[in-house]
Amino acid sequence: MPELRRGPITERWVIIAPERAKRPSDYRTEDKKENSRPPSNCPFCPGKEEMTPPEIYRIPGEDGSWRVRVVPNKFPAMQDYPELGRTAVDGIYDRMNGVGTHEVVIETPSHDKEIPDLPVEQVKLIVDTYVVRLQELMKNDWYRYVLLFKNHGKQAGASLAHPHSQIIATPVVPRRVRDRLQTAREYYERKERCLFCDVMLMELKSGERIIEATDDFVAFTPYDSRFPFELVIYPRKHAHEFTQICEEQRWELARILKRTLFRLKHLLGDPPYNIVLHNSPNPIPRPGKPGYWTTLQYDYHWRMAIIPRLTLVAGFEWGTGLYINPMPPEDAARYLREVEVPED
Amino acid sequence: MPELRRGPITERWVIIAPERAKRPSDYRTEDKKENSRPPSNCPFCPGKEEMTPPEIYRIPGEDGSWRVRVVPNKFPAMQDYPELGRTAVDGIYDRMNGVGTHEVVIETPSHDKEIPDLPVEQVKLIVDTYVVRLQELMKNDWYRYVLLFKNHGKQAGASLAHPHSQIIATPVVPRRVRDRLQTAREYYERKERCLFCDVMLMELKSGERIIEATDDFVAFTPYDSRFPFELVIYPRKHAHEFTQICEEQRWELARILKRTLFRLKHLLGDPPYNIVLHNSPNPIPRPGKPGYWTTLQYDYHWRMAIIPRLTLVAGFEWGTGLYINPMPPEDAARYLREVEVPED
C-alpha cells in the first residue's frame, strides 16, 4: 500500500510507493535499462490489450479497434483502498494511506506518432479523453486533486515509448498547488481581478514572450522561466476549471498543443519534455447538505505548462528552489515564434 | 549581466544568466558533451592554475603547492556590479541585477580522489575553507544568502570531473529558504523549542531512520524523503549558523561526511549526488545604527542535505512539488547503516 507522508519542516506531502521499490543494486548507474521496447512487445500497441490491466475507458474506432484507451497504471503510485487512515501515530509527522488512482491515457494506436505527428482530429480525441476522465475522478469525494501530466522521452521520466499521458488522483492538495491557489486568492481579494488574467494581459501587451495567440489560447514563455524553452498555454477567457472547456475550445486547444509541440520538436530535435495541467482542486462536499458543494476556487485559472528537459538540475536548485536559467525567455519565445508551422 | 526575476504567480526568484547561454541547436540531445576532461587539460589540476580566474584563497602545501584553492567560477551565475538596480519597470514583475558572487572550491589537487578517498585531514581542510569563505561572504552588506553546494557526477550537474564545490552569494533569500525560516520561527513561537531539534530527537528515539549518530552529529534519512537514499546531517547541539562551528566539530563533520559518502559509494556504486548546506541567511545591517545588526534567526538550525541522483524526476513533480519515492527511508537507512565503513 503506498503511503502519503508529510513532515513539519517542508510541510510537503510525499508519496512513498514501495510497490515500485528496488534493491540498492538496481540503482547502480551501470544497471540502467533502456525504455524503448520494440513495438512487438509494447503493451500499449493494438493487439496487446491483454498486457494492460482491465480497460477503464476507450474511444472506439472501426471494427472493434480503438482510437484512445485509458487503463490503470500497472505500477500505481496511488491505490484504491477502503480507508484513508489519517494518523498522528508518528508523533510530529503526518501519515495517511496512499488512497487514490493512477491511470494511463494511451493517446494513439500508433507506437511512434507523437502529438505533432498526429492529425488534429486525434489530438482532439485525446483532449476529450482528458475531460471525461477528469470529470469522473473529480466526482469522487475522497480525491482532493487530480493531476494530469505527460512524460515524453526517457530523460523526462517516460518508462514506455508509446505515446501516453497519466492521471493521478490524490486525497491531498500538493503544497505547491495550495501555495498558488492562495496567491491567486490573495491577489483577487486585493485587486478584484484574476492574477493569471493580469499576467496574460501584460504578456499580450508587451508581446516579447508571446509564441502564439489564437482567439481562445495564448502560448508564452513565463517572465520567470526556470528552464530554457519552458512555456505555458493559457485559456484567454477566464476559467478556473479545465473540464468546463467547450467543444470549440477543445478543438483550439488540440490545435495550439500540436502547433506548440511541433515548434519544440523542430527547433530542438525531439527533446524530452513534460506537460502538466494546472487545474483547480476538487470541490469538497459540504457535510450535512447533500448535493451542496463548497465554492470552487473561481479566482484560479487553469493552464498547461510544457517543460523541455534540456538542462540538468544541479545541486542547489534542490536545496533552495533557486534556479539558474541560461536562456532568457524573450529569446526562447523569439526562436519558437520563428519556427514555421505547417497548416493542418 | 545576470538578472534576478520574480513573477507574481510563483513568487520565486530565478537567475537569468545569458552569459551562460547557448543557441537552440546546442540543446539538441545528440550534441551533449562529456564533462570528464582528461587530467592533462583539467583547469583544477596542479600546474594548470593559470587556466582559472585569479585565485581568491588557498590553503598552501609544501614548496609552493596548495592543498585547497578557491577561484571565481569562469561562467558565474552572479557577478559583482556597482548597483542592485531593483526595479518595477516590468510592471507586475520584479527584477534586479544579478549582483553576487560565484566561487569554486577545488577540494584537492588529486583529479580523481573524492571525499571518501581522501584522508580525513584533507576533508577537514575543505570544511575549514567552507567556513573561511562563508564568513567572508556573510560580511558583505549586499548579500542576503550564501549557498554552499557540491555537484558530483555529470547527472548531478557537475561540468568538471575534478572534485570541487561551489559557493553562490545572492542579494535575495530564495523562497524555499524563506518558507523554512518562517516555519521554524512559527514553530518556535508556539512551542518554545527548535523544530529541527525536535525532529532530530524524534529520530534518535525511534532509530529506524538513523544511519549514524556521533557525539556531535546525526545522519538520518528524512521521514518525508523525496528521493531514494536522500539523507541529512544535523549538528546535535542547536546552532543556527554554520560558520560558528568549533574546531572539534569541524573534525567530526569531516569524519561523518567522509563516512556517509563512503556508505553511498559502496552501496550504490559511486552514484551522482548533490550536497547542499542549509544555513541561516546573512544578518542585515540596521540603518542608522552602525555596527548594529538585526537579530539573527536563532530558531533556525543549520544542516547538510545529501541527495543521490538515482531516479529521473518526472513531469508532475515539476508542476506540483508532489514526489513519488519508491524507497521507504527506513529501508534506505538500514541499507546505509549496514555498510561496513573502514576506520580512518
Structure, explained:
Chain A is α+β, with helices and mostly antiparallel strands and 344 residues long. The first copy, chain A, contains six helices and 14 strands. Chain A has one domain: HIT family, subunit A. The first copy, chain A, has helices at residues 120-138, 175-191, 195-206, 247-268, 315-320, 329-338, and strands at residues 3-6, 13-16, 57-60, 66-72, 94-97, 101-106, 145-152, 164-170, 210-213, 217-220, 231-235, 273-278, 303-308, 323-325. In chain A, the strands form two sheets. A ten-stranded antiparallel sheet of chain A has the order 3-4-6-8-7-12-13-11-10-9, with helices on both faces. A three-stranded antiparallel sheet of chain A has the order 2-1-5, with no helix packed on it. In chain A, helix 1 (120-138) packs across helix 4. Mean pLDDT of chain A is 89; it is low at 30-34. Chains A and B meet through strand 2, strand 7, strand 8, helix 2 and helix 3 of A and strand 2, strand 7, strand 8, helix 2 and helix 3 of B.
Please render the helix and strand layout as text.
2 copies of one chain form a homodimer.
Chain A: E1 3-6, E2 13-16, E3 57-60, E4 66-72, E5 94-97, E6 101-106, H1 120-138, E7 145-152, E8 164-170, H2 175-191, H3 195-206, E9 210-213, E10 217-220, E11 231-235, H4 247-268, E12 273-278, E13 303-308, H5 315-320, E14 323-325, H6 329-338
Antiparallel strand pairs in A: 1-2, 1-5, 3-4, 4-6, 6-8, 7-8, 7-12, 9-10, 10-11, 11-13, 12-13
